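Shipment paperwork, digital attachment
Item: protein structure file
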Amino acid sequence: MEDKAVLSRINDLVSEEERLLESSRGPDGLTEADDARLKAVEVALDQCWDLLRQRRAKRHAGEDPDQAHVRDATTVEGYQQ
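Attachment content:
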């Protein structure tokens, strides 16, 4: 996946996240399905950002950025801030 495609996916996910967060502020909050989707979107965003960072690091190191891969949610969500 090219950097542009990853960034496009990030933009799509951010738009969906914003829509869900806006809905959560309403009087009824989120449905159970929307809450689950919000959590899935947050994980997918973390995976996309991780992939983009991997690609940039490989390119900077003179390696092939296409060798970067999406890491599983457990790995990406386990990173320390």
